[in-house]
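Sequence, please.
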């Protein structure tokens, strides 16, 4: 049997990620096989999850994924573990449209209890009505108990426990207000090397939680589910060879997207920074990431730039998103307004100067097919002379956006990070480019 629970909070910045990482490391230390998951489209927290537990966090997103796809992800990635730990997104009831797609929404669909992280820095007995409000707001969401974050002293913790006792909610422990220990909020601009620097911080958090949190009680209150049997199968009659860009510059990739590729054929990873040319493949996937941090190295790798351009000009199939799309343009302009030449296939440039945030869920309707995804970037396109396809792109509430999808020959690119975590959706995407 597998134990499963969700970690959430009343709002962002309450300490969900900090507590999640500490608990992941704590369970790992005590020889539990644990699989982390992340609610929402976030690419950063799953990388922290991997650092803490040794297993990459898997996204579960009710906007981008069907219920069946979420169930399959839990089965596939949770099949050899003892604990599924699911970190929520934002506040418990914060969804794309009211509470739709929220952590609470997922908790109800998975019938999984929620462990609430409460920031106690500037509050004592007043946590009682706060917690009680979340417990009573939607009775279909089961609050299994709380952990307090940023507790000032044992006396402070005693007052918080009294509040929990009076409203009949379980308190599993607390994390003191630790100085110089903070996990940064999700944002674009934190590269892999910087994430790895937090390994010792996670150790320190786990050291404290070993003394202040009862992990056994958490597991006891968690949902017990059957050990799943993965139904991952190779799709017959398809032998597509995929080339996937993956290195320091390009690494915003949903594991489910790669799994879908593996079900249709073979996957070969390559590095636009370090390798001389792309692998022999039928379909090239260049995801987003941090190309702005590696502009000089990407621009200097002339043989790789030529290899990708030649593949595209010879009608090779390419799908590029966000940073990958920028890479296929004429040049990327740095924050200092210095232009670095790139693949030079699409006739536009992208610039990091004069940053402007573009953020939100997206539905791209292309030839009657809907592709779900999200947009999150600070760069913009300039000197854009490229043709776009006739696609309708809307946000989470159905309002049209200005986002474009570009297509030249068999190369398609967009700022949208699309989710294609099933073979059927991936085949639709491949067929759109023929």
């Amino acid at each position: 049997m597998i134990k499963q629970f969700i970690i959430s909070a009343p709002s962002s910045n309450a300490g969900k990620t900090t507590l999640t990482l500490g608990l992941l490391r704590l369970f790992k230390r005590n020889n539990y096989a644990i699989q982390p998951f992340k609610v929402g489209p976030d690419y950063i927290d799953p990388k922290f999850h991997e650092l803490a537990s040794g297993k990459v966090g898997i996204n579960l997103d009710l906007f981008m994924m069907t219920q069946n796809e979420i169930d399959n992800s839990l089965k596939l990635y949770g099949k050899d573990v003892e604990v599924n730990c699911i970190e929520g997104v934002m506040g418990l009831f914060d969804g794309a449209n009211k509470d739709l797609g929220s952590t609470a929404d997922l908790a109800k669909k998975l019938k999984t209890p929620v462990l609430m992280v409460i920031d106690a820095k500037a509050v004592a007995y007043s946590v009682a009505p706060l917690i009680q409000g979340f417990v009573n707001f939607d009775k279909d969401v089961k609050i299994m108990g709380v952990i307090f974050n940023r507790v000032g002293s044992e006396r402070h913790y005693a007052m918080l426990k009294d509040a929990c006792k009076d409203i009949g909610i379980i308190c599993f422990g607390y994390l003191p207000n630790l100085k110089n220990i903070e996990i940064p909020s999700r944002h674009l601009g934190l590269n892999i090397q910087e994430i790895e620097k937090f390994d010792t911080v996670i150790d320190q958090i786990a050291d404290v939680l070993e003394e202040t949190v009862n992990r056994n009680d958490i597991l006891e209150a968690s949902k017990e589910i059957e050990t799943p049997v993965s139904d991952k199968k190779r799709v017959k009659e398809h032998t597509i060879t995929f080339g996937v860009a993956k290195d320091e510059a390009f690494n915003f990739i949903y594991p489910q997207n790669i799994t879908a590729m593996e079900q249709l054929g073979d996957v070969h990873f390559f590095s636009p920074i370090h390798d001389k040319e792309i692998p022999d493949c039928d379909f090239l996937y260049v995801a987003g990431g941090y190309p702005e941090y590696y502009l000089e190295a990407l621009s200097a790798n002339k043989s790789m730039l030529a290899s990708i351009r030649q593949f595209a000009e010879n009608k090779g199939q390419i799908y590029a998103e966000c940073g990958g799309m920028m890479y296929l343009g004429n040049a990327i302009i740095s924050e200092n307004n210095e232009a670095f030449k790139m693949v030079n296939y699409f006739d536009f440039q992208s610039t990091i100067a004069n940053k402007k945030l573009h953020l939100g869920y997206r539905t791209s309707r292309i030839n009657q097919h809907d592709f779900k995804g999200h947009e999150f970037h600070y760069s913009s396109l300039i000197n854009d002379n490229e043709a776009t396809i006739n696609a309708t792109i809307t946000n989470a509430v159905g309002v049209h956006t200005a986002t474009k999808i570009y297509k030249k020959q068999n190369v398609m690119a967009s700022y949208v990070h699309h989710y294609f975590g099933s073979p059927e959706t991936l085949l639709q995407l491949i067929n759109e480019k023929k």
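The chain has a mean pLDDT of 93.
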